[in-house]
Amino acid sequence: MNALRTLLEDHDQIVQEIDGGNDYGEDLFVMLTKDGERTGVAIAIQVKSGEKYKRAHGYAIPVDGHANDWKNGLLPVLGVVFDVATRQLFWANLTERLESSEEAPNWIAVPREQELNENTIQSFLALAHTFVETRSQRRIEESSVHVSRLSATSRIPPRFVGRVQEQQTLRDMLTTATGGRVLVSGMAGVGKTSLVDQAVRHQDVSRAYSGGVIVVDMHGFSAHRTRMASPGIAYAPLLSVLGVPESEIPRTAEGQAALYHRTLDTLNASGSPVLMVFDNVAELSQVAELLPRADAHGVVLTSRSKLGVLEGIETISLDCLSPEESDILLAQILGPEDQRFRASGSIRDLCTLCGHLPLALSISAAILKDDVDLTTDDLLAELREEKRRLDVLHFGDTAVRAALQVSFVRLDCALRDPFCRLSIHPGSEMSEQAASAVLGVPVPQARSLLRRLSQASLVSRSSATPRWRMHDLVYLFAAEQCQKTVSASESQQAFGRLAELYYHASLNADLTLRGTPEGNPPQFQSATDALLWFDLECANLQASARFARDIDLTEHAYSLSMHLIVYLDLRSRVTEALQSAQIAYEAARKERDAERQVRALNNMGIGLTNQGRLADAIRTLRKAAAIAEQIGFLDGQCDATISLGTAVRQHISPSAAIPILIDAVNLSRLNKDPNDIGASLTNLGSAYRESGLLHQAATALSASIPYHRASGNRRQEASAHAGLGVALSQLGQQEESEDCFQRAFVAYREVEDEAGIHLNYINLGHTQLKAGKINEARTSLHQARRFFQSNAHQHFEANSLGLLGAAEWMSGDTSRAQAYYEEAIRIFHSIGMKESEREIRAALREMLSS
After folding, report:
1. Rounded alpha-carbon distances, angstroms, from residue 631 to 277, 585, 628
2. Which of 462, 505, 768, 793 has the fewest CB atoms found within 10 Å of its own CB?
């Protein structure tokens, strides 16, 4: 690279090294000059060096996936091989070879006769110049370019929403002491042109560029590649807009280029800098020759691609609108008189399904505006069908799919297949490891492919984590393309690799939360690490489990679902935990695996209990216990019996649960599993306590703690400490009781069990009430109530309210106490907890009668 660059620059050619852009197989841009003047002619060069490019009669350059770009790109691409041993350069015209071949070869020969050195450089430049001019003439009639000057009185475009920070950043970049040079990039339809149009009309920008603002549409993302504007066809209209009379514009591209740059230099010298806006740029080759030489002139480029790096150009990456901005945009288009906009919930859902993409929002609004009888709910129903969403987002000649199709066609051939295959991942956000699994390549290669796709604005990288995301509409488009190009068996193999990755990671995360991590060292160093991983991957795991179920990969459907249960419980996501258990049960039934059915049914019963659907929970858990007993599955029978005792304790009475939980203790001792023994004793202790058998409760709960320690289950140990604290409090041992609660807080916080922490606040509040610490009790109980209310744990919310009622009664505020009691009664009644409802009614009657 250095040898070639030095040779070219020694002969006054302008060389720009390409660094980090989309890989179209180009390493250098060379703007050709003659007699010290730019000629308006440019070439691209691919540079190679090393033994693998040597051949018996010369050298060769691999085509790889670059055939289409080298053959059809705006600039011809020449190849240069550097022989390290002899320090010689050899060249070949790659574009010419491909244009003359019916089928693209795998390698293009570089003959020894075509050496590039001090003696041959001028003939090389002359041949390149002639080839470019001839090729440009063939294309010039097929291309077009639109150039305009914004007038001082130009009206600011309507229907522009938000982007306050991006506008300010762009204006600041353009109004520096020397003219700014900025690339605004982003996916199709995100509003790049609108942002630039808005910003460049600002008075600060107008003052900075007294020579005016000139806008050039380079048609880089036209559906037809031949419409892409090149420098050669842009010079004449640019000169005309810059004020050069038509009669003075040279007829050759070389003459036009020289006059164009002299005109800009003259404007600079006279203190009248201009701002050049090159819109819809697909390749650097479209604008490299058009960039002004003087720094005083400003430049703005808009592109769906990152374009690579040109010296002095800063980048603004544009994302979708915020939910609030999406609402405002729809309101502006529909107009204040449109009653449909008043359905705020439907409008919010509409914005979400459009992915807050301005193009999709504008199309949706146009559909509603055109069809006054169409309700937002009707349009939502159409958009919710994922397979048809891109069909719906089409109005007139504007469509999201069409915009994305152009981006796809413009994509490097080597990137199209990976782009499609990423949609095999059943979620639009993924880690690099997940992308690696889906693509079937090592992580470094997957990262490189993702980076290149991000340069085409088809994926974006998270700023906080090494994760990548496709916009939802881009994801649907990729899935469409994948169905056309990737076979069903290949897709299933790719998903199988992903499911294996998720299986092992979720297993380790689940075991870490349970206190029994695997690995040396384990994959997750702490429960916090495991929870954070689940936070990131939960949606992907759920989607993978559903997809695995649908395609009969039952092993993965079961395992992924079961690995989520503890995490979802810790995060108080009760409904999702039940859904995961149901998927696991469906998978186990398909496998005809009775033991797995028992485990899944047990988790379904726990989920139903947590939802307050206690009668359903009892039926489900009895079924699980019966199946386990029938097949001799003692471990499953223990678990189901423990869970059944918990449901009966809440639905019927604590005393009714005692015999069931004694059976559970006996079964678990027979099974010799310390985790089951500890869990059965803890639940039995709670039933004893709630039945008023306080000494038996304290004995059972104390006995459970060593078993929890032996199994490493800190969460269950915390529950035992909390239950023991309540029992000791009721026995009048307040100091020992509060010590138990503090031990429970330590263990709950260690495993980040927010629900456990706030249950402990209920227990602590109850103890503080018994000790007459009313203010402290209020603080504990309000904290618990807020948590359980926000997480829809009605049972525990009602418990908090009942105790708050007691606190206010003790303080003498009977009206507030009555309000709390009545709300607790309402909740207990709605979830069918009759015993708890009776207790609160009795407390309320006693207070009112006194």
Report:
1. 76, 17, 5
2. 462
